[in-house]
Each structure stands twice: as C-alpha cells, then as structure tokens.
Design a protein that fits this description.
The complex is a heterodimer of chains A (498) and B (100).
Chain A (H helix, E strand, L loop, with lengths): L2 H7 L4 H10 L4 H13 L7 E4 L1 H16 L10 E5 L26 H8 L3 E6 L39 H8 L5 E6 L5 H7 L2 E4 L19 E6 L2 H11 L29 E5 L9 H16 L3 E5 L7 H16 L19 H12 L2 H14 L4 H22 L5 E5 L15 H5 L6 H5 L4 E8 L5 E8 L4 H15 L10
Parallel strand pairs in A: 2-3, 7-8, 7-9
Antiparallel strand pairs in A: 1-3, 4-6, 5-6, 5-10, 9-11, 10-11
Helix pairs in contact in A: 3-4, 6-7, 8-16, 10-12, 10-13
Chain B lengths: L4 H10 L6 H18 L39 H5 L5 E2 L2 E2 L7
Antiparallel strand pairs in B: 1-2
The chains are: A alpha/beta (498), B mainly alpha (100).
C-alpha cells in the first residue's frame, strides 16, 4: 500500500476503521502500521511515555485472522492509546511519576482487559499529569505534553493539551490514535478534550471498573473514552463499561447499546442552563459558544430552561479538600517496600527510608496535595475541613437532583477559556485549579458528562461544550452531544508542525 | 486559620515526606493560599445535612467466603507479588533493620 493511502488511514474514526476492516477495504495490520508510524514521528508532542507498536501489530494480526474466520469483535482492527494510569500486564505503568518508573504490572486493569477482549490493540502508554493531578499535563515526571494546536496569531507558543489526560487528547488531535482511554477525577477527560477539539465522556461513577487504575481520589475517579466524535465515544464506552466484582463501587447494571441508540432528535428533552455558571467576566468567546450551543439544541427539538445550581461556587473548594484527602490516603501505599522507587540513604532506618523515598518519588504538585490532604484529615481539623466538604458535596448533589425536576440535561461550557500556554499558570496553583470550575460539580455528583467541540476561539483554538446528564443517562448525554456535533460543523484540525 | 513552617514540617512528617527548610518555606505560602481559599466552605449552612459517603447509591457486596475465589487476587502468586519489590529477599520484602 502506498504511503499516501497509509496516511489517510490515520484520518479514519473508530467506526470507519471498524467498518472498513470488516468490509475488507484495508487490513488491520495496515491500520496499526499507519498509526504506529504517526506515533513514532511525533516525539515532539511527548504524548507517549512508552510506545508499543508490537502490541498493536499483534492485535491487528489477530483481527485479520478473526475476520478471515468470520469472528470479528466490536473493536477488531482498532488500535488505541492507553493512558498510563491503567495497569497493563508486562508493560511499564508509571502514572507519569518517578515513584513508579520501571514498575511492570503483573496484572491487567479491568478496563484495558475489556478493550483487548473487544479486539483493540495498544499503540502505547499515554503521558499524563503525575498521578492524574493537574490540568495542563505539566506535572508529568516524563516531561510536558505539547498540544498539536497553535494559536492563529502566528505565535509559536507551546500550548497545554489540558490535563490530566493530556497525552490522550494530544495524541487523538494529532491523529496518533483514533481513540484513547482517559480518567476523570475533576475534569481530566472533559477539559483536555475541550482544549484539543475532540470529544470525551466521563460516565456515571461506577460504570467503568476502577480495578487496576492507579488510584487518585477513589470516590471521584472514573474512566472514560476520548475520541474524535460522539459515535466513537459510544463505541469505546460500550467496550470499557460493565460490572466488575473486583471494584466494590462498580455498578451492577447491564451495559446499554449506546451506539445503536444514538439519536440527535431531542424533541421532548428539556435542557437546563445553570445561571450560576455564567460567571462575572466570562470570556466572550466562551459566552458566544454557549449561546450558539443553546440554539443548536433548540434546533434539535429540545426545550431550553433556566435552572439554578445554588452551591456551584463551593464545588471547587470542596473538591480541593476531598480529592487531596483521598489522595493522601491512597498514595500512602508508596513506601519503597513493595513496588516502585526506594531511596535508602546510608544508615537510614525504615521511617527515614519512607520519607526519603516519598521525597524523591513524588513531584511538587503531588506533594502539595498529599500535604493538604494530610492536614485536612488530621486530628482537630477533620470536621472543620473534611466533614464540612462532604456535607457541601451532598448539597451540590442535591442541587442537581432538584434541577432534574425541571430538565433532563444541562448545557454549560467545559472550561472557562481556550488552551493556555505551557508555563502560564504553573506559578499559581489556585489559578490552575480554577480551570476546572465547570467540570468539578458533575464529578462531585458522580454524573455522566461529556465535552464536544463547540467553536474556535478568536485565536483559532478549540472550545468545548459540556453536557451533563442524570445518573445512568449516558445515552441522553451522547445524544445531545451528537446534536451539537451535527450542527457545530467543527472540522478544524491542528496543522502539522511536529 | 493560617499554618506556619513548623506545622508544614509536622504535616510532612505525618505524610512521611522529607522536606528541606526551603521547601517548607515555599509550601507555607502555597498551603496557606489553598487553605484560605477553601475556608469559604465555612459560610455554607449545612444544618441537618449528612456528609456524603457514596455518590451513587450502591450497597456494598460481600463475596462468598471461599479460598482463591479469584485466582488472581487469591494466594499462590508470591513471585508475582514480589516481582516489583525494590529489595525482595528469600521470598519476602526486604526492609532496613527495624529492631535495635
């Protein structure tokens, strides 16, 4: 096959690859080779920590054999990227930390196993913010991920791909993989999707098993897919979701056929517009995109209603108590004894070894969050901080429950701005945290939420619209996403410079 | 409520993270900035509100009381458990001497 046709293969969506492979338009091996070549040529983006073309090729060979045998699987022939937060048997899994550098899991995470069982292959392990803590992919021990996008003003400023799933978003936007896994604790699927002009869905908490995902904040962590369009997200989510005995919070529910039920007809649906999300000083481009999104959903038949989520402003501060508290507990496991880094100074005892190991193995943002979490959980402060935050979290969930009396879905921006330049917000942790202001409430309430491309900013950068749904109503969220996708006509892509 | 450098060092000790004086000084400002910001939660009226413990109602399950019900998480996988240990010795995790 000629090089020109191989390059075109990497422009195909998951659905197009699946269907084209089934029809015999190309082989799975050709697809895997084309994407692996793109991965190998894109080291300037630093999207991958480990490249695994042999894994993708082996899956592709099986897919071609399965096709010949008439035994195709849902994702036969589709190579994907795997966020390096998912344990992959025999392949280094680091959570982008020095602490886990060289860690080779002896087991496979449930979500990744489901994807392999569905026929997908792995192109590599995708870079991310260290332990998924960050909104710009600048906290990775393995270096920043660079967005393929650049501002249209001619500046060559390196832009953030969002975080924490920044390797996933950058790789998909740059056509290094057609889809990837992400995880979302407080926006880590949706915000990077918005920054790079792709789609991503965080399902209802418990839809995807957390087993084998490096834990950050267990009551919030939820895996989900990122891809170029809504249909691909539905296909991927079907493969990733499902009950798992090994995760105590896994939902014991059947996995709906989200792709088959996709429909952009929103007649009879009411879409709420939360007035508290219209912040003072909201970016003009964001406000215009939001208004355009409202018009698109009306055009699709939905009724648009004004709603109130009165505790919205408290979501972010509650999140920055709850998530660090859970992180400080979860990350206590990194002790230099059982796996990962060990730093044993000369003559050091066990306690000194713990402290030295954790000082050397964790990056600055991870340490900051562990210290905050340790403080808010410590004797004398637990009730004032942690219990209070969990009560506020209950009120935030209650706000959504009340809103569902008046609407079926909620439309809001995904992030308050387009992608910012690398380095722009690193000096001020609070400024960075504020980037997740629209994403965090749905996380705290465990609700399904997705980002789809809405428009381009005045600088030519993608902006995302967010749809939030009732618990378990991923279908409603996907359908509204599809209605926007069909009307927004978002075809812009990053010009190749890498 | 603000915290001082001694408190930062105490928290770091509780978290088993060694920090230098310079790091403690830098952390003091950053942690106070974050803690000052989250303090706004105190203004929320939470009278009668139970703290959230489960975001999606979900009864916790008990598994059957069976040995090795799941071979992966059951027993007999010592070498896999030790495979990533920084200092495995004689089938155990090695640690520095803890008894004087």
């Amino acid at each position: 096959m000629s090089r020109i046709i191989m390059v075109e293969l990497t422009d195909l969506t998951v659905a197009q690859i699946r269907d084209g492979h089934r029809n015999g338009d190309f082989t799975a091996v050709e697809v895997a080779a084309a994407f692996s070549a793109n991965v190998a040529a894109a080291s300037a983006l630093n999207a991958f920590i480990v490249e695994t073309p042999e894994h993708a090729l082996a899956a592709a060979e099986r897919a071609d054999a399965d096709r010949a045998a008439g035994a195709l699987k849902p994702l036969s022939g589709v190579p994907i990227g795997m966020k390096d937060l998912f344990a992959t048997k025999g392949v280094q899994t680091t959570a982008a930390s020095h602490m886990l550098e060289g860690f080779v899991p002896q087991y496979e995470s449930t979500v990744s196993q489901k994807l392999w069982d569905a026929g997908a292959g792995m192109l590599g392990k995708l870079n991310l913010d260290q332990f998924a803590m960050g909104s710009s992919n600048e906290t990775s021990y393995f270096g920043n991920v660079i967005s393929p996008w650049r501002r249209s003003d001619g500046s060559n400023a390196a832009l953030a791909p969002g975080g924490s799933s920044g390797g996933s978003s950058s790789a998909i936007a740059a056509r290094l993989c057609p889809a990837a896994t992400g995880t979302d604790t407080g926006g880590s699927i949706r915000q990077p999707a918005a920054f790079t002009g792709i789609s991503g869905i965080k399902p209802t908490y418990g839809r995807c098993s957390r087993w084998g995902i490096v834990a950050f904040a267990s009551s919030l962590d939820q895996a989900g897919p990122m891809a170029r369009d809504v249909r691909d997200c539905a296909i991927m989510l079907e493969a990733m979701a499902g009950f798992d005995l090994k995760d105590a919070t896994s939902l014991d529910l059947p996995v709906p056929q989200w792709e088959a039920a996709l429909s952009s007809d929103l007649v009879g649906k009411r879409v709420g517009i939360p007035r508290e999300y219209r912040l003072d000083g909201i970016d003009d481009d964001i406000a215009a995109m939001w208004d355009a999104g409202i018009a698109m959903l009306k055009d699709a038949g939905a009724e648009v209603v004004d709603i109130s989520l009165p505790h919205t402003k408290y979501a972010l501060p509650a999140y920055y108590i709850i998530a660090p508290a859970e992180a400080s507990s979860n990350l206590a496991r990194y002790d230099g004894v059982r796996y990962g880094l060990r730093d044993l100074p000369d003559g050091a005892g066990l306690q000194d070894m713990y402290a030295a190991t954790r000082a050397a193995g964790f990056g600055a943002e991870v340490k900051r969050r562990i210290l905050i979490g340790t403080y808010v959980l410590s004797a004398g402060f637990y009730d004032a901080y942690y219990t209070q935050a969990q009560k506020v979290r209950a009120l935030i969930a209650r706000d959504f429950d009340a809103a569902w009396a008046n609407c079926d879905l909620i439309l809001a921006p995904t992030a308050p701005s387009a992608a910012f330049a690398l380095g722009e917000k690193m000096a001020d942790p609070l400024a960075m945290y504020l980037n997740d202001v629209f994403a965090v409430p749905a996380s705290l309430a465990g609700l399904p939420a997705m980002s789809v491309p809405g428009a381009l900013s005045r600088d030519g950068l993608p902006l995302g619209l967010q749809i939030i749904g009732r618990a378990f109503d991923e279908q409603g969220v996907l359908n509204a996403g599809l209605a926007i996708e069909e009307r927004a006509g978002f075809t812009a892509r990053a010009e190749r410079w890498w | 409520m603000t915290i001082d450098q001694a408190t930062v060092r105490k928290i770091a000790s509780l978290a088993r993270i060694a920090i230098s004086d310079a790091e403690a000084a830098a952390m003091e400002g950053e942690l106070n900035g974050i803690l000052g910001w989250v303090e706004q939660l105190g203004e929320v009226d939470v009278t009668g509100v139970e703290p959230m413990t489960a975001v999606i109602p979900n009864a916790l399950r008990l598994r059957d009381d069976m040995v090795d019900a799941d071979p992966l998480t059951g027993g007999g996988v010592r070498d896999a458990v030790l495979a990533n240990a920084p200092a495995a010795q004689h089938g155990f995790f090695g640690v520095p001497k803890v008894i004087e």
